[in-house]
Fold:
Amino acid sequence: MRLFYFFLLSALAINLFSCSNKHIANQSRYQFHSKDGKPDYADLNYWAAHPSIWDPSDSVPRPLQNEWRDTSVDVFFLHPTIYIGNKLFDGPNAAIDNAKLNRKTDYSTILYQASVFNQQCRVFAPRYRQAHISTFFLTNKEKADEIFALAYEDLKNAFEYYLKHWNNGRPIIIASHSQGSLHAERLLKEYFENKPLANKLVAAYIIGWPVPKEYISSIPICADSLQTGCICTWRTFRKNYVPIWLRKENGNSFVTNPLSWKTDGVFISRNSNKGSILKNFNKIVPYTTDAQISNGLLYTRKPKFPGSFLYLTKNYHVGDINLYYVNMRENISRRIAMYWKK
Structure:
């Protein structure tokens, strides 16, 4: 039970990194009703992000709005668990037309995470019947697998619809966080591992979830900042902290350092961190965090930002992307450029 509340508090900490923006949502995007409870991916309301509509993934932090843009690649983004607590609870899997949850999704993860790709990518992020956060703590594994399987079924259907109707042979980035990464690993294995589609994979950013070293055989971990057709992955914690639930892993997970884009244990100073996006989306805060890989995890000293003395958690899961936002944005551009060179 203590473990559950620890994760729940970590999920609630998303308020540090979101919910201060001034955008006004198109309310019609949240007032649709599914006829049979299933998503219809031909209907753009079932996409949290899509290039044919304006959505929060199109937002660019004000200091970066003059940057050159070329959306020559697609990113298929699988968002993390936003379905937490009791207020929005309507079953183990979220209702696809839960208006409050969908709006919360768009103005948290889609704005603060998916937007990192918009300099050179068309962003596709399907809504799906995500598993409630409590699913991660079920002792009945068969029941948990059933709940996650329903969520994955939606994402699989969305990906197949995207491939058939919108991809048109374009290069792809698979990106995800937390629960989204759990499903992204399965998507990579089913559609890319030893498959022709692997030739279209610029990179996969599978963040906030372990990528076991033996899970995917034909897609390597990225060894540097320019490699393509590979996986980048990390989970961020405060230096020397090993969560109880991760102690049995024994380092059996790939890890990428998002400041060096290497997999070694070299410490990279916060001076290399070009900027984080915290509560104010339009303000870039530089030098917040350093980075060093150890025993299958990414570590940083306590982040430095205005008011950080009040930020006491040692689990930086919610900030995996936000803390390294500008460096990640630049790396996406570099890998895409290298993909086109090849």
